[in-house]
Amino acid sequence: MKPFAISGEQIDVNVCALRLANERAGALVTFEGWVRNHNEGQQVGSLEYEAYVPLAESEGARILAEAEERFALTGAAAVHRTGHLRIGELAVWVGVTAEHRGAAFDACRYIIDEAKARLPIWKKEHYAGGATAWINCATRGEHAGGSAP
Amino acid sequence: MMRVNVQYFAILREQRGLTAESVETGRETVSALYDELRARHGFTLPGDRVRAAVNDTFVPASQVLQPGDRVVFIPPVAGG
After folding, report:
1. A116 contacts on B by Cβ (under 8 Å)
2. What ipTM was predicted for this assembly?
3. DSSP run (H or E) holding A62
4. Residue B15, helix vs strand vs coil
5. Which of A24, A44, B33, B71 is least surrounded by CB atoms within 10 angstroms?
6. Cβ <8 Å between B10 and A124
7. What is the pTM of this model?
8. How many domains is chain A built from?
9. Touching check for A79 and chain B: CB below 8 Å?
């Protein structure tokens, strides 16, 4: 599995954490991003994620390498989902191990923040009532529910 | 004129109605190619909100195109 994997399959957090098993590690910090039922005042029914996989995986690997350079880690890995996800499903998982917790907390935060800002991954919200919108892609005169069919 | 391969994702894929196509262009840079395709297909995102990748690597807007390049225009991202 790629260090930062893009997956069309449900994420198994136990399998993910096992990849980081390391006898030098004294801390594992994980982050889970879940699909929530609302965004900016609208009821969200489901989410669709689309990724440009080769570049998302290579840029994701770069982010993990940056985290390993900046913080005293023993390991780091992440998985991001693609496809149509229901409310409550796991969309992204980040796991970081270190000898001590401080570095693990800081690195986990760094990785998820950079991943959100840099990876070529897109999110389409499906609202109650049938409207949809690609997040961050609205242009003048549009709003979140603006692309109703 | 040269031929390049363009791949579309997310809002651009929907607005183009295709995931990929081969394009004949006389434009020199990736940003000029985006402007040409935007005018032809009515993409809503202006060029300054779209990044580009060539052959699976991020490139600046001024990147000069080579025949056979695989070009991807990247709408504002929203992972996580």
Report:
1. 77-80
2. 0.96
3. helix A53-70
4. helix
5. A24
6. yes
7. 0.94
8. 1
9. no
**Tally of domains within chain B:** 1
pLDDT tens sequence for chain A (149 residues): 899 999 999 999 999 999 999 999 999 999 999 999 999 899 999 999 999 999 999 999 999 999 999 999 999 999 999 999 999 999 999 999 999 999 999 999 999 999 999 999 999 999 988 999 999 999 876 654 444 43
The CATH number that applies at residue B15 is 3.10.20.30
Domain that holds residue B31: 2-74
Residue A63 exposed, middle or buried by CB count within 10 Å (0-12, 13-18, 19+): buried
| Amino acid identity for residue B78 in this structure | A
Residue of A nearest to B8 (CA): A52
* Cβ–Cβ gap A112/B80 under 8 Å: yes
Tell me if A131 is assigned to some domain: no
Q: Is B79 inside a domain boundary?
A: no
